[in-house]
């Protein structure tokens, strides 16, 4: 070896080693792998537990995700059911119709049309991301399992879900996306001038056409795919969710651009929603959720008004999709109803998390906007009804409201804290349904998604 060049490469030296040395290295690597699989000793630190609001606490899998790591929770959950089910990653992107829509959207850049904001929501990598909707449907499908009478040809055994459940997940995302796209329509003129010439605002007119036609295209394909499942009860259930989505656009007061406004708080609601009082949020859907939801005693009651708005606009679709997935699996009706409650409460917990985001900083960005019917605003109106005077300035257009002023008053009031309690309440209600299911990787993934929303 002393005659070897001083700067001989490591690769050449390694290649010159005897075969026995190489085998020894392989045996050492195998020993490391075997050591990694040894079960933990009693002295090892305990694994992570989740408080679920019930007497006994269920144990999570050995790989908990870090708190608030939403993207990782969704990414790991996607692996459990095979692949992402998002509309953005499915065959629709390959169709000529969607490709043409994408090309037309480029013409709206710089026009500030609301449809562009909708497109940003659909691809935003955060808690607003619509990818998780179909994913949740598939996860609850796998967590519950299916009846033994389901034919083998219907099963996707590699992912542990049914082919029909995967189709329902796609239908859910298409309906949700169509609803968001339709909300991007702009009212081009006040009602008093209806029927007159619209003028030269060609960008806005073009944006409305794209929003209307692309939303209709998605909704039509969703209905076609729903009919292809050939399940009359499921069709009735999902159709009632579409009805709820339509009703959500006409619920409560709105400005001329159909932006929602909170109703005036009533004195009885202030007393009824005091600290420690439980509010009934059934709205009749615990008896028959295919019928329209009850509006009795809702307007002016902050928690009930907030809950009904978002059950109509999101919770009904997610809850009924979870219920429909269990229906396709041949599960008992009682378990199907628990699936609806899971989706309903998960959606409300999700919405409370989104409502809190604008109030996470002391200053509202210049020109910043937030929902005037978000939970922190409604709770503050319950606490201080004088803020409603500022809200009334938006009866014609919400642009007339001083959002910075509303933000500052809500931020220093009880609204954010009551919203955190609301978020925890619905998270625990969703977790309670999961705790009734047998332990599985899918159930753990759903628990991790809830954990990523908040600390429970």
UniProtKB/TrEMBL annotation:
InterPro entries: Isoprenoid_synthase_dom_sf (IPR008949). It comes from the Eukaryota. One of its GO terms (cellular component) is mitochondrion. GO terms for molecular function: prenyltransferase activity. This is Decaprenyl-diphosphate synthase subunit 2. Transmembrane segments: none annotated. GO terms for biological process: isoprenoid biosynthetic process; ubiquinone biosynthetic process.
